[in-house]
Design a protein that fits this description.
Protein name: Myo-inositol-1-phosphate synthase
Organism: Phytohabitans suffuscus
GO molecular function: inositol-3-phosphate synthase activity
Number of domains: 2
Strand content: 15-25%
Family: Belongs to the myo-inositol 1-phosphate synthase family.
CATH topology of the largest domain: Rossmann fold
InterPro entries: Myo-inos-1-P_Synthase, Myo-inos-1-P_Synthase_GAPDH, NAD(P)-bd_dom_sf
Number of helices: 13
Radius of gyration: 20 Å
CATH class of the largest domain: Alpha Beta
Bound molecules: nicotinamide-adenine-dinucleotide
Oligomer: single chain
């Protein structure tokens, strides 16, 4: 079941950590700690094996993969001995991470992206390809009437100018090539009615948005606790300090706003009201890929007694994200194989801002981690029965 994983942002920290990790696990040099699809309850013959994943992608950066992997090792993100051990695998993937095609219109650019993916699929005799967006976070795009309709979108893409942000152009190219798509970032990705219609038209599934790896992961466990104990959260404020490429990019106010909104959503949707407070993200060059989140929660208990809780999270962002990228690629490929198309809401477990909307009378997906876990386990069982 050779399965392609096409990484938009293939030379970034998350992408390269994923490539190094998959190669190290395949060679038996590392165990799959952090990959939830390797847990007893989620293991399934319906999923492609980690060793079946073949990597390619697009990135405007030109840093060689082995150089990027060495930099990640120097920063303590991956062990240097593993980078050394998988040097040949990195050299084999090197030509598969291609420059981002740019043409006169976005329709032509999408066709070139699709051509690169098709050639990759042919070269490696891949059963299918999953396109994963792990590129730099974008600011929200200006609304465009063509975002609402697949045919109008195709027409508008054929005219000069940018109708779609890059993350959505990758989704467009993926869908018209019959590939599934995962948005690991808070960018727009497939989150437009025209792209949803296109995914259904081409019978391909998609998943997103924004990998849940740190502060929001903790929030999605703690917020349900306050709700279940009927404790009233009055304020919840968090400060995130991070460096690395993602941190530098989030210094841009537009990208920062997209990320902060995505991080705060879990509270309102789990508690049923919005406590006071904000999530702030600050770039601190010196801490590289290691993130510190400080959260202060104030809450009222019985008879209004005031209490508070604080937590500090020190996480290595790419080491938390990479195993989830591998999990998502395996799960999305298996869902595609089983005939699923459109949004994979059952994969909410992985995301800060999951597809499917807020829970409520009209449906929606839960934001509480335990409920998301149960939904994921049932999804994996369903894949095996399909
Ligand atoms: N690490 C985590 O825990 C985590 C969690 C959730 C989401 N994310 C998201 O994942 C993404 C990647 O994070 P990272 O730490 O690897 O960032 P990074 O800056 O190291 O890598 C991003 C890569 O995207 C490339 N890129 C920029 N524009 C592109 C385009 N148009 N097409 C293709 N590639 C392009 C950049 O050149 C860079 O190599 C970010 O959007 C981040 O917000 C990360």
């Amino acid at each position: 079941m050779a399965t392609g994983v096409w990484l938009a942002g293939g030379r970034g920290s998350v992408a390269v950590t994923s490539i190094v990790g998959a190669a190290a696990i395949r060679a038996g040099l590392a165990d799959p700690t952090g990959c939830v699809t390797e847990l007893e309850q989620l293991r399934s013959p319906a999923l492609p094996a980690l060793g079946d994943l073949v990597f390619g992608g697009h990135d405007p950066a030109t840093t060689r993969l082995c150089k990027k992997a060495e930099a990640l090792a120097a920063a303590g993100v991956v062990p240097a001995r593993l980078v050394e051990a998988v040097r040949d695998e990195l050299a084999a993937v090197e030509p598969e991470i291609r420059p981002v095609p740019v043409a006169a219109t976005q329709l032509e650019s999408a066709a070139l992206i699709a051509e690169d993916i098709a050639a990759f699929r042919f070269r490696h005799s891949l059963e299918r390809v999953v396109v994963v967006n792990v590129s730099s976070t974008e600011a929200a795009p200006a609304p465009h009437p063509a975002h609402a309709d697949a045919d109008a979108l195709r027409q508008a893409l054929g005219e000069p100018g940018a109708v779609l942000p890059p993350s959505s152009l990758y989704a467009y190219a993926a869908f018209v090539s019959g590939c599934s798509y995962i948005d690991f970032t808070p960018s727009t990705g497939a989150r437009l009615p025209a792209l949803d219609a296109l995914a259904h038209r081409h019978a391909v599934p998609y998943a997103g948005h924004d990998g849940k790896t740190g502060e929001t992961l903790v929030k999605s466990v703690l917020a349900p606790m306050f709700a279940m104990r009927n404790l009233r959260v009055r304020t919840w404020s968090g400060t995130n300090l991070l460096g690395g490429g993602d941190g530098a990019n989030l210094a841009d106010p537009g990208a920062n706003a997209a990320k902060a909104t995505s991080k705060q959503r879990v509270l309102g949707e789990t508690l049923g009201y919005e406590p006071q407070g904000n999530t702030r993200i600050e770039y601190v060059d010196d801490i590289g890929d290691f993130k510190t989140a400080w959260d202060l929660i104030t809450f009222s208990g019985f008879l209004g007694t005031s209490m508070r809780m604080e937590f500090t999270w020190h996480g290595c962002d790419s080491a938390l994200a990479a195993p989830l990228v591998l999990d998502l690629a395996r799960l999305t490929a298996a869902a595609h194989r089983s005939g699923r198309s459109g949004p994979l809401t059952e994969l909410a477990f992985f995301f800060k801002d999951p597809l499917g909307g807020a829970p409520g009378p009209a449906g929606g997906v839960p934001h509480a981690l335990a409920e998301q876990w149960a939904m994921l386990a049932s999804f994996v069982r369903g894949l095996a029965d399909a």
